[in-house]
Amino acid sequence: MFIEAWDYLAGHQAQFLAALWRHVALSASALAIAAAIAVPLGVRLANKGGSALVAINAANIGRTLPSLAVLALVMPIMGTGFAPSLFALTLLALPPILINTHTAIRQVDPDIVDAARGMGMTAFEIVRKVELPIALPVIFAGIRTAAVQVVSGAIPATLLSLSTDAFFGWIQRALTPSGLRAP
Amino acid sequence: MIDLDVLSKAFPGSPRPAVDRLTLSIPAGEVCVLIGPSGCGKTTTMRMINRMIEPDAGTISVEGRNILHVDPVELRRSIGYVIQQVGLFPHWSIADNIATVPRLLGWEPTRTRARVDELLSLVGMEPAQYRQRFPRELSGGQKQRVGVARALAADPPVMLMDEPFGALDPITRTRLQAEFLRILRGLRKTIVFVTHDIDEAIKMGDRIAIMRDGRLVQYATPEAILAQPADAFVDEFVGSDRALKRLALIPAADVVAAGAGAGEPGARLPADASARDALSAMLATGVDRVTLIDENGAARGTITLSAMRVRLTARGDGSAIEPHPLSNT
């Protein structure tokens, strides 16, 4: 079977590259949109308390849906093609990023936030200069999980998922502020 | 100069106010220690001064400004803030941590860099060695040194310090207390210092405000509080050894009796010893006199037990105050 697949690929190189490009573009867009929504939302929920519980639980339920089921649910409404796939994959990527962002921001030492506030940082400065950088490794772990889910949702190819995981693992390490890195 | 005027704050769900009609005036350049048992309102009082907590009633003025009319962010940038857990930013180098407020205020990078080095030297840390380190590489004492340097960065006239030495081991604490007292006195900052440790209060404070249940019980110099506790609560709070604590505040040179000679019996102490050191030497040698000597070993004067007794029981006007454990010996 592998040999047949290989023969097919060898005979249809142009189509293969186009399909590969479409998948990469689809996955990357879904991930970017999901992060753009989930990170600010997660920060906001973490700093609010109360209402966060509902959103986080909703996200957790969303997380239990298998990726193929989400695609199947969206297809009757939006049909097939780039837009419905993008929508479904974005939906799929939201929960892990949201949950990790929320948890990471909540775990920032309250004394650090108190010091930041006491020295005269505005609420926005506290998020941008203190909370986000400290929470970044955990937030990125969420993006990494989402990336694996999105890619495997778009192409159920274990190999590609694993290489994606390794790639994002490398980025996560590179993005971790050096003061937080394990010695 | 900090003026608190009939200041009150109640937290929801609490049966009594955390701070109850507190009026307190702290002169410029002095260290005012707020002290009392847990829940007495000392930290709440301190945190109202930089509006980390908003008062329900009353006014606060800092350097003549009614701070309730000042933008909280701008206000906090003009007041140094030091907390027990330090709260250094773990993802920033020591230099970046100290530069926090100068950067918020938009200082020139060269000015900020020079200030960081100046402050590291001030708190006894070699700039070249520590500038680029990260907080996790420092000991507890070093972290609080950086914490104080960070609070001093923009040269604020007022500093708020919430149990800054509370998390340190006793040896480091004693060393930092002495060192920071010297630094802060040299800088003539107005300081509000919160602690629950009476010995620290006596050591650090120009004045001590003793609080209980949100109210001010006594506000006076350490010497006055030890000599004349306002009530039974203060008496108990300062401890049954308050006579010894007073002696620790009195330089032995102040109780030198006239007519001292070089040939006196008893122990020899350096001229900067405290009266408490002198008493300790008397008890150790069994001789009720001690001779103070200068660096060259020459006698400077003699202290007697009876002279100390007079010093402890006499008020400024010479009249005797209430009976004292020492006067019964």
Write up what this structure looks like.
The complex is a heterodimer of chains A (183) and B (329). Chain A is 85% helix and 0% strand. Chain A has helices spanning 2-11, 13-48, 52-64, 67-78, 82-106, 110-118, 123-154, 158-175. Chain A starts with a helix and ends in an 8-residue tail after the last helix. Chain A is elongated, with a radius of gyration of 19 Å. Chain A is mainly α and 183 residues long. Chain B is α/β, with parallel strands linked by helices and 329 residues long. Chain B contains 14 helices and 14 strands. Classes of the chains: A mainly alpha (183), B alpha/beta (329). The A-B interface holds A 109, 111-122, 125, 129-130, 133-134, 177-180, 183 and B 50, 52, 73-78, 81, 83, 85-93, 100-101, 104, 134-136, 147, 150-151, 160.
Summarize the structure.
The complex is a heterodimer of chains A (183) and B (329). Helices cover 85% and strands 0% of the residues of chain A.
SSE layout and pairing:
The complex is a heterodimer of chains A (183) and B (329).
Chain A lengths: L1 H10 L1 H36 L3 H13 L2 H12 L3 H25 L3 H9 L4 H32 L3 H18 L8
Helix pairs in contact in A: 2-5, 2-7, 3-5, 4-5, 5-7, 6-7, 7-8
Chain B lengths: L1 E8 L9 E8 L4 E5 L6 H8 L7 E6 L2 E2 L5 H6 L1 E5 L10 H5 L1 H5 L4 H14 L4 H4 L9 H13 L5 E5 L7 H18 L2 E6 L2 H7 L2 E6 L2 E6 L1 H6 L4 H7 L3 H8 L6 E2 L9 E4 L4 H11 L3 E5 L5 E6 H9 L16
Helix pairs in contact in B: 5-7, 12-13
Properties at a glance:
heterodimer, A: 183 residues, mainly alpha, 8 helices, elongated, B: 329 residues, alpha/beta, 14 strands, 37% helix
Give the DSSP E fraction of chain A (strand runs of 2 or more residues): under 5%
Which band does the percent of strand residues of chain B land in?
Answer: 15-25%
Terminus-to-terminus distance of chain B: 44 Å
Roughly what is the average pLDDT of chain A, rounded to an integer?
A: 81
Helical segment tally of chain B? 14
Q: Describe the sheet with the most strands of chain A.
A: none
| Shape annotation of chain B | globular
Using CB atoms under 8 Å apart, which protein chain pair has the greatest interface? Answer: A-B, 23 and 29 residues
| H/E element order of chain B | EEEHEEHEHHHHHEHEHEEHHHEEHEEH
Order of helices and strands of chain A: HHHHHHHH
